[in-house]
Amino acid sequence: xxxxxxxxxxxNQTQRRVALLExxxxxxxxxxxxxxSVEDLARELQxxxxxxxxxxxxxxxxxxxxxxxxxRRAADRVEIRLLRTIDDPLEQIRSYLVAxxxxxxxxxxxxxxxLDAWPATxxxxxxxxxxxxxxxxxxxxxxxxxxxxxxxVGAVAAQVMEAIHRGEIETxxxxxxxxxxxxxxELIVRSLHPSDEAGEA
Length: 201
Fold this sequence. Notes:
78% of the residues lie in helices and 0% in strands. By secondary structure, the chain is mainly alpha-helical. Helix 4 packs antiparallel against helix 5 and helix 8 runs antiparallel to helix 10.
């Protein structure tokens, strides 16, 4: 019985930690994190600093845990969306990029600026961007049936994705994240199938 109780307690603690991370993600996406103290975060979350230190022992570690949770959650949701997409590589490219846009939509420019400013969070961001670009490249290879340009298209996609994340596309082209990802998807599709008209739908 003691073992069962211990397992139940551990499960409850895990659930509480995940729930707190979810709330932390909401705050840092909206407000950023570089200028916030642990006290500021605790006030926003309406919890004690001790509760926050239950996530990690320092502000940086707490933020890193939140950022990692955000990108892991986003990746899981994007993959689920992709699995539900029809088995058409071109449509999967569109679906994948639009799903990424939807997950990033709540993030403020301040969040992305802070993300890039901290080495630890920038590394998480870059790792996830590389993984997403590799996935796009894989989908491109499928759609292109071994086209040698797939690696180049994947590299271009990675650069554009980073520019979207930093807000540069919105500044220079006037496209929000969702529109920019859709435009990138159409650009890739048209580069693989110039005569394809499906992107106009």
